[in-house]
Amino acid sequence: MTSGTITDGPALRDPHTPDSRIGHGADYLHAEHTLRSWFFTTDHKRIALLYLASITAFFVIGAVTAGLVRLALVVPDGQVFTNDTYNKLFTIHGVVMVWFFLIPSIPATFGNFLIPLMIGARDLAFPKLNLASWYVFMTGALFTLASVVLGGVDTGWTFYTPLSTAFSNTWVVPALIGVTIVGFSSILTGLNFVVTIHTMRAPGMTWFRLPIFVWTHYATSLIFLLATPVITVALVLLIAERAFHIGVFDPAYGGDPVLFQHLFWFYSHPAVYIMVLPGMGVISEIVPAFAQKKLFGYKFVAYAAIGLASVTFFVWGHHMFVNGQSDFASVAFSVLSFAVAVPSAVKVYNWTATIHKGSLKLDTPMLYAMGYIGLFVLGGLTGLYLATLAINQHVHATYFVVAHFHYIMVGGTVLAFLGGLHFWWPKITGRMYIEAWGRISAFLIFIGFNVTFFPQFILGYLGMPRRYHVYPPEFQFLNILSSAGSTILAVGYIFPMVYLVYSIWFGKRAPANPWDARGFEWTVASPPPAHNFVTEPVAPKVPYDYPIQAKETGRQHS
Amino acid sequence: MSAGATDAAVAGEGRDAVGVKLVSHFATVEQQKHAAVLGMWAWLLTELLLFAGLFLTALVLRIIHPEAVQAAARHLKFWIGATNTVVLIGSSLTMSGAIQLSRLGWPRGMVRFMLATAALGTLFLLLKGYEYYADYQEHMMPFLSDRPYELKDSPPSRLFVNLYYVATSLHGLHLMTGITILLVMTWQASRPGFLSLHQNRIEIFGLYWHFIDLIWILAFPTLYVLNR
Ligand code: HEM
Ligand SMILES: [Cu+2]
């Protein structure tokens, strides 16, 4: 396989000397140029970029509808949109953000790009399947998008029965078909990762030398494999009921509406960890690199990933405390939900301990990582409130819940995603972005986020329900504050889109290892050669083999 | 490495070489085979969960509403279900035969066994179709408003019968997919040289076929037999 295309892409060499030949030879971006070579590629790195482009587009759609929802909530009398339009808007927002952005985001982009590089493999185990899963994803997502835009759906992203089966007069069936299809893409991605991590590790790359990023993706892939089929069945049953009257949920047909909630949350609660675990993986790479210290308690962090992935299957009932579920079940689910906090806290403590006495360098990725830790802690703690039976009675289906899940999902996933994007951007594109701009964006997002969502905790506590756009006038001030915050947040999101794209053409060329980071991916050129490695890489004895100071370069980390 | 590297090339009377072609991103044929087998197992695991949701619901329903469910289950055509169980187990046997012959490098016998497997699969579908037709005659389809359901005053029995239709048609869909793949593969395998390059495809497909069988073996007692 050492044929013409890769002979001039040096793979293993001193990580600190910039490669003068970058961009001239056979790195994966320049190996081929045709449109065909992108849309029919089986290179995991190019497929990652296909995903990156698609989910960015979906994020923009989700963000615009979020903006419109916030616009509507500026006035208390609901005059901005009709009820119907408002319902459709928050449904588009939820559907797009959850199914087409958050769930695929980190695994499909960074997971695809990095897992083979990190374990020293030439590609994923099934490259064609990998490409196929992008096509499956796009087919399903565009199908749903067309139906929520052309016809509209007003059920919210949760498609609860009996609203979705019997009462909603909107395009529920096409939207469901699309979401079901997208599920298959998750399954295929998870399957590919599991097999790759099991069978394709380079010699010497034992399980306990794997980067935590790989561990968290392994755990995530297990959730993809174990949970997604259950939502598939739930959605298929929903389609069957709505389209063919094969009733399973509607009592009029003998069905049970709560059954849908069980099936739905059996998937959707673990899905939260599909969103959060990969983010934890990203943070676990960034923190040691910018503290120049070994990750504290490596094994615990790895076990915690598997622990989270397991416990998360047993807490779905905390979404059903007020729907008539038995008291015994509620108490059990409440206790189990508290148990999720343990592995989560393990991770947070380990990151903090890693930062402690490290030689900290506050570059953009690290700023995002610190923001992540803050928001995740607040989101997690409010989760404990929600898991407490008595408090749940009070705040169920209020803005308190909206604030909580945004802290977890946006704080947890989006900040990690952006942190990872800045961290690996030089590797992916071979270019550096302008550091000052990166720092500004991280600050804007952190501030904008808190101004947007913190008031929602108070609103929810005071009793403002979610999914209503008419509310008592005394809530207006906090709503205006939240909407104002969302404009800051929007600016924070637009910034990186501008300066990152700018850097592709005008940025400085990136060295192989701009951060003095450890891991196989930093030993290959930026951008990596088409086939990743020319000679087989050899794993270090310990993962995260950081010195307090980078001796090779003498670079100071203050 | 040379393209088309094979392992364990056997040559002999009436036999073809048996092996697997190494794809370039794998280091060894062993690694490639391992990945393929693991990939199929992972897929089967998710498939199992797909059906598990349905079966579990049916079981819980049986526990909560035993009489209503039994009344509905008595209408299911036990003998067709039982015959179909035998048919599918038979098809698993012929598939095992095909796999065994593929390992020995006897393509002609293998192809015959594969055709027999496809035939048994088709027989299953025909019987199942006939069963649906009989259900239709007996007013056992709650979702047809022009043929009022026999047990229409008993919601749990309707729910159970609805689950039965979803589960069995989902199984039928898997079987149809399986037969299609099997026929395409039989066509490919009937050309010379197939076994020397892709023997493991037969093995991997065999796993999938046995799985379809297994799902039916779970479905039959859950739907037809339990406390009958
Ligand atoms: C990655 C970013 C985001 C994600 C993943 C996300 C996700 C969600 C989800 C799942 C819902 C629930 C919809 C429903 O209840 O059916 C929701 C609701 C909402 N989101 Fe977001 N969101 C994001 C960003 C934003 C931003 C930036 C804003 C505001 C500027 C925002 C404002 C809202 C509001 C106000 C609701 C409540 C809708 C309602 O229940 O009436 N979201 N979001
Ligand atoms: Cu939950």
TrEMBL record, chain A:
<keyword id="KW-1133">Transmembrane helix</keyword>
<dbReference type="GO" id="GO:0004129">
    <property type="term" value="F:cytochrome-c oxidase activity"/>
</dbReference>
<dbReference type="GO" id="GO:0009060">
    <property type="term" value="P:aerobic respiration"/>
</dbReference>
<dbReference type="InterPro" id="IPR023615">
    <property type="entry name" value="Cyt_c_Oxase_su1_BS"/>
</dbReference>
<feature type="transmembrane region" description="Helical">
    <location>
        <begin position="260"/>
        <end position="283"/>
    </location>
</feature>
<feature type="transmembrane region" description="Helical">
    <location>
        <begin position="171"/>
        <end position="197"/>
    </location>
</feature>
<keyword id="KW-0813">Transport</keyword>
<dbReference type="InterPro" id="IPR023616">
    <property type="entry name" value="Cyt_c_oxase-like_su1_dom"/>
</dbReference>
<feature type="transmembrane region" description="Helical">
    <location>
        <begin position="131"/>
        <end position="151"/>
    </location>
</feature>
<feature type="transmembrane region" description="Helical">
    <location>
        <begin position="218"/>
        <end position="240"/>
    </location>
</feature>
<feature type="transmembrane region" description="Helical">
    <location>
        <begin position="295"/>
        <end position="316"/>
    </location>
</feature>
<keyword id="KW-0249">Electron transport</keyword>
<dbReference type="GO" id="GO:0022904">
    <property type="term" value="P:respiratory electron transport chain"/>
</dbReference>
<dbReference type="GO" id="GO:0016020">
    <property type="term" value="C:membrane"/>
</dbReference>
<feature type="transmembrane region" description="Helical">
    <location>
        <begin position="397"/>
        <end position="424"/>
    </location>
</feature>
<dbReference type="InterPro" id="IPR036927">
    <property type="entry name" value="Cyt_c_oxase-like_su1_sf"/>
</dbReference>
<protein>
    <submittedName>
        <fullName>Cytochrome c oxidase subunit I</fullName>
    </submittedName>
</protein>
<keyword id="KW-0408">Iron</keyword>
<keyword id="KW-0479">Metal-binding</keyword>
<dbReference type="InterPro" id="IPR000883">
    <property type="entry name" value="Cyt_C_Oxase_1"/>
</dbReference>
<feature type="domain" description="Cytochrome oxidase subunit I profile">
    <location>
        <begin position="32"/>
        <end position="543"/>
    </location>
</feature>
<keyword id="KW-0812">Transmembrane</keyword>
<feature type="transmembrane region" description="Helical">
    <location>
        <begin position="48"/>
        <end position="72"/>
    </location>
</feature>
<comment type="similarity">
    <text>Belongs to the heme-copper respiratory oxidase family.</text>
</comment>
<keyword id="KW-0349">Heme</keyword>
<feature type="transmembrane region" description="Helical">
    <location>
        <begin position="367"/>
        <end position="391"/>
    </location>
</feature>
<feature type="transmembrane region" description="Helical">
    <location>
        <begin position="92"/>
        <end position="119"/>
    </location>
</feature>
<feature type="transmembrane region" description="Helical">
    <location>
        <begin position="328"/>
        <end position="346"/>
    </location>
</feature>
<keyword id="KW-0472">Membrane</keyword>
<keyword id="KW-0679">Respiratory chain</keyword>
<dbReference type="GO" id="GO:0020037">
    <property type="term" value="F:heme binding"/>
</dbReference>
<feature type="transmembrane region" description="Helical">
    <location>
        <begin position="436"/>
        <end position="458"/>
    </location>
</feature>
<feature type="transmembrane region" description="Helical">
    <location>
        <begin position="478"/>
        <end position="502"/>
    </location>
</feature>
<dbReference type="Pfam" id="PF00115">
    <property type="entry name" value="COX1"/>
</dbReference>
<dbReference type="GO" id="GO:0015990">
    <property type="term" value="P:electron transport coupled proton transport"/>
</dbReference>
